[in-house]
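Re: that backbone. Tokens:
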């Protein structure tokens, strides 16, 4: 995702201001997604979302990834993962 849409700090900040490594946040979000109903978001869309690739992401995929990332922030905070 380009920084014009979301800054890095917006993507990585979790509960109580904790930040998580992008790889850890992405892995947790993708694990959460596998438990959700519906079609999985393509890997390329995840790469775009986390800034590893450029391109366009459909609205359905964008909403689904945003929900997964928000849930991942909460999960990582509850699990006591250390922040950067």
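Recovered sequence:
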């Amino acid at each position: 995702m380009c920084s014009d849409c979301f800054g890095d700090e917006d993507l990585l900040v979790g509960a109580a201001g904790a930040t998580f490594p992008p790889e850890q946040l992405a892995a947790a979000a993708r694990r959460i997604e596998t438990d959700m109903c519906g079609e999985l978001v393509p890997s390329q869309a995840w790469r775009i979302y986390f800034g590893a690739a450029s391109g366009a992401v459909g609205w359905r995929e964008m909403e689904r990834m945003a929900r997964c990332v928000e849930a991942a922030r909460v999960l990582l905070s509850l699990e006591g993962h250390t922040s950067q």
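DSSP finds four helices and no strands in the chain. The helical segments are 8-12, 22-34, 43-49, 59-78.
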